[in-house]
Amino acid sequence: MLFLYAMKRKNILPASLANIRRGADILRKGGLVAFPTETVYGLGAGVFLPQAVARIFEVKGRPRFDPLIVHVASLEEVYTLWQSINPRVEKLIHTFWPGPLTIVFPKRETVPDIVTAGLSTVAVRMPAHQVALSLIREAGFPIAAPSANRFGHVSPTRAEEVASDLGDRVELILDGGKCERGVESTVLLGEGERLVLLRPGAISVEELEEVVGKIETVLPSSSILAPGMVKKHYAPSLPLYLFLGEVSDLFRCELGNWVVLSPFSLSLPGKSVVVLSEDNNLEEVASNLFGVLRELERSAFEGIIALPVKEEGLGRTIMDRLKRASSGIAEIKENRLILIDK
Ligand code: TXA
Ligand code: MG
């Protein structure tokens, strides 16, 4: 058993320069390399190698209609992907790159269809992580990479989580420790001068609006502009229900073998509680969320009762991920917990 465990993880290597170069070599030969970014781990292939990109979809079990983000290390590389740029997008790039902001804009013909799921746009971001930037530079081309999880599972924030989802189907996992932000990048669509939020992420809408003015947050209901925004997308294998009621009511309620997941410091004597940030810091809540969900999956608990945060700033992103992970809402009636599926 121990032997098997070691075998399974032999593709994880520390992200030293020598191993980054080894990774770049694998990418040039059409292989896959998982690497850390400031948000979550990515599963990368060379963007101009369609057969390598096709393997990303196979390894993840991801449907081909869900396009990938292309990661760049320089502004010159952006011009090999986008046809043009406008002043609003330029301002965003200068303010937030490198960083957790992805921008979707019309693509050049040379970007393979498999990367963009046949769309005429391509999503691009410059990650704020030395390992990711160095891997792109050493490879000599941008890297197409979704989050390095099995499709439908929470995104990995540690190298071991990548290995537990993808095993040895990826040639190399560069271990750069825990991802600092812990939630994925914010995805914006540029449509002419309009900017539309496709996915809330590590940079809040408020921060973006301070720099470029109005960001539209409502998608036309008919469009599938962000195919990855399917309703349930970040589900842990343990049932999770959001509790929006009075926390004091939980105290009087029999919770059995369920654990309360609280963003902030909370004392509920006699109950099992996991706190995401004892310092009541929203950034820390985001940073710990996915890792804790994965730890709870491996625990003996039967389910999770998750408490909400206020839906503003980074709180909007945290609530987005919690709602996607949830099976429904938990309520308390006559001191009994009632689960209502969505
Ligand atoms: O932080 C992140 O964004 C991480 C790291 C690895 O960079 N990546 C990530 O990738 O979360 P992924 O594939 O899990 O999510 C990409 C999202 C999906 O919702 C996808 O549908 C959307 O971006 N997307 C990509 N290209 C698009 C396009 N051309 N049009 C609309 N949405 C697009
Ligand atoms: Mg993903």
How helical, in percent, are the residues?
25-40%
Number of helices: 12
Query: Strand portion, in percent?
Result: 15-25%
Main pleated-sheet profile: 10 strands, mixed
Bound molecules: threonylcarbamoyladenylate, magnesium ion
Strand order, biggest sheet? 1-8-2-3-7-4-6-5-9-10
- CATH class term of the largest domain: Alpha Beta
Got a strand count? Answer: 16
Shape field: globular
User: What name does CATH use for the topology of the largest domain?
Assistant: DHBP synthase
CATH structural architecture of the largest domain: Alpha-Beta Complex
Computed CA radius of gyration, to the nearest angstrom: 20 Å
CATH superfamily of the largest domain: DHBP synthase
Write a structural description.
With 342 residues, this protein is of the alpha/beta class. It has two domains: 12-212, DHBP synthase, CATH 3.90.870; 240-341, Threonylcarbamoyl-AMP synthase, C-terminal domain (Rossmann fold). It is 31% helix and 22% strand. Bound molecules: threonylcarbamoyladenylate and magnesium ion. Residues 37, 39-40, 42, 66-69, 100, 102, 104, 116, 119, 121-123, 145-147, 184-185, 187, 198-199, 225-229 line the site of threonylcarbamoyladenylate.
Topology:
Layout: H1 2-8, E1 12-14, H2 17-28, E2 33-35, E3 42-46, H3 50-60, E4 69-71, H4 75-78, H5 87-96, E5 101-106, H6 113-116, E6 121-125, H7 130-139, E7 143-144, H8 159-166, E8 172-175, E9 186-191, E10 194-199, H9 205-212, E11 240-243, H10 247-251, E12 258-264, E13 273-277, H11 282-297, E14 303-306, H12 314-325, E15 328-333, E16 336-341
Parallel strand pairs: 1-8, 2-8, 4-6, 5-9, 11-14, 11-15, 12-13, 12-14
Antiparallel strand pairs: 2-3, 3-7, 4-7, 5-6, 9-10, 15-16
Helix pairs in contact: 2-7, 11-12
The structure holds threonylcarbamoyladenylate and magnesium ion (MG).
